[in-house]
């Protein structure tokens, strides 16, 4: 009978384990595969997809997607997944949840992780009515798309010109790089005005630099060139071809044969319907990079637009010619003034028209 008792006991034990396993709460089940970040059980973490590079630095600006859940709820009480782009959040300013703040510092670029925060590291004993109940444990799913070390950048920008100049040039270049990274990110999200602001801020910082020697001067110029090209492209996106041209010319002042700058010039002139100038820039670019697909495609487009504009003008003139059946002096003048503003060389039909008119 003792062996019978034993097996009953074992059966009872197995059954209760199974039952407790079946009825274990969702968060408790997650906890089994998570690691304790601080050692006090307040922040538990599970890496779903690991990232790369160094972990997020203090005061960084982070580009993240995240969703936050309460236990037994499929619907997040907070999420960025409905946004088209990840959210940019500055640590220490935009991230207010203590646990999330600490959790983010353990993450790397590209990482996707799951965190469980005890109330002390989340919304406390009071919760946050009506959404977060009292003493709630919360689950965060976080994906770090990218981050920028904005602490250094912000500190540097806040300094006076004199103080800025007292830093080594390498510090300035690092700040400029960060600003440009920000700008590129804004650009990539079609946020062209902000992108332009970042690029221009970087240009200003470089312009403020008092340089002692030629080597430093050259370093500054080298850093300015890609920024001018970035601004030029941004102005093109903003439908400001005149400004785009201005900045591509600034780039050309630094490097007369820079193909990217010549290409931007070509784009700007095309937008301005100045086809001969566009052609001239692109031919120079092509001379340096004969097999560049972008350059060759744009050259073809310029040629097509040029031809189309000539055809349209021909049509315009022939229409005017029809109206000249009963010659009036005013109309004659109109053709003359029209002809003067016509940038392209006179076409045979244009010449004929002039003769007919006079
Ligand atoms: C982060 O910001 C805080 C507050 O502005 C500051 O006290 C701290 O020194 C900064 N940390 C770094 C690493 O810049
Ligand atoms: C720009 O966005 C696309 C997706 O929209 C992404 O694949 C690409 O890596 C981004 N580039 C930069 C420089 O952020
Ligand atoms: C800005 O310039 C850098 C370096 O030339 C380039 O990698 C980046 O794609 C450019 N971004 C834009 C939006 O022009």
TrEMBL record:
GO molecular function: Hsp90 protein binding; peptidyl-prolyl cis-trans isomerase activity
Domain PPIase FKBP-type: 59-148
Keyword terms, alphabetized: Isomerase, Membrane, Repeat, Rotamase, TPR repeat, Transmembrane, Transmembrane helix
Domain of life: Eukaryota
Single GO BP term: spermatogenesis
EC category: isomerase
Gene3D superfamilies (alphabetical): 3.10.50.40, Tetratricopeptide repeat domain (1.25.40.10)
PROSITE patterns: FKBP_PPIASE
Catalytic reaction(s) noted: [protein]-peptidylproline (omega=180) = [protein]-peptidylproline (omega=0)
EC number: 5.2.1.8
Transmembrane segment boundaries: 12-30
InterPro entries for the chain: FKBP6/shu, PPIase_dom_sf, PPIase_FKBP_dom, TPR-like_helical_dom_sf, TPR_rpt
Record-level GO cellular component terms: cytoplasm
Family from the record: Belongs to the FKBP6 family.
Name of the protein described by the UniProt record: peptidylprolyl isomerase
């Amino acid at each position: 009978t003792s062996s019978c008792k034993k097996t009953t006991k074992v059966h009872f034990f197995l059954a209760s384990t199974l039952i407790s396993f079946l009825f274990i709460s969702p968060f408790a089940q997650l906890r089994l595969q998570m690691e304790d970040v601080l050692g006090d059980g307040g922040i538990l973490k599970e890496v779903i997809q690991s990232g790369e590079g160094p972990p997020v630095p203090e005061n960084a600006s982070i580009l993240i997607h995240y969703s936050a859940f309460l236990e037994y709820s499929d619907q997040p009480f907070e999420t960025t997944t409905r946004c088209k782009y990840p959210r940019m959040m500055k640590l220490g300013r935009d991230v207010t949840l203590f646990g999330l703040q600490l959790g983010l510092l353990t993450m790397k670029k590209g990482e996707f992780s799951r965190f469980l925060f005890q109330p002390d590291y989340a919304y406390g004993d009071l919760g946050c009515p009506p959404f977060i109940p009292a003493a709630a444990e919360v689950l965060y799913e976080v994906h770090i798309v990218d981050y920028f070390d904005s602490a250094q950048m912000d500190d540097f920008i806040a300094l006076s010109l004199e103080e800025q100049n007292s830093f080594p040039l390498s510090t300035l270049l690092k700040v400029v790089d960060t600003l440009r990274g920000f700008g590129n990110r804004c650009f990539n999200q079609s946020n062209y005005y902000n992108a332009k602001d970042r690029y221009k801020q970087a240009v200003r910082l470089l312009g403020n630099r008092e340089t002692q020697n030629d080597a430093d001067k050259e370093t500054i110029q080298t850093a300015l060139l890609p920024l001018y090209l970035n601004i030029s492209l941004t102005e093109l996106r903003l439908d400001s071809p005149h400004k785009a041209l201005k900045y591509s010319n600034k780039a050309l002042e630094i490097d007369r044969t820079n193909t990217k700058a010549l290409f931007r010039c070509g784009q700007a002139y095309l937008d301005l319907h100045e086809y001969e100038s566009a052609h001239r820039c692109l031919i120079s670019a092509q001379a340096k990079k004969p097999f560049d697909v972008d350059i060759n495609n744009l050259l073809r487009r310029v040629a097509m637009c040029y031809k189309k504009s000539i055809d349209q003008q021909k049509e315009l003139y022939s229409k005017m010619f029809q109206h000249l059946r009963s010659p009036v002096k005013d109309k004659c003048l109109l053709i003359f003034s029209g002809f003067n503003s016509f940038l392209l060389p006179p076409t045979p039909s244009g010449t004929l028209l002039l003769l007919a008119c006079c």
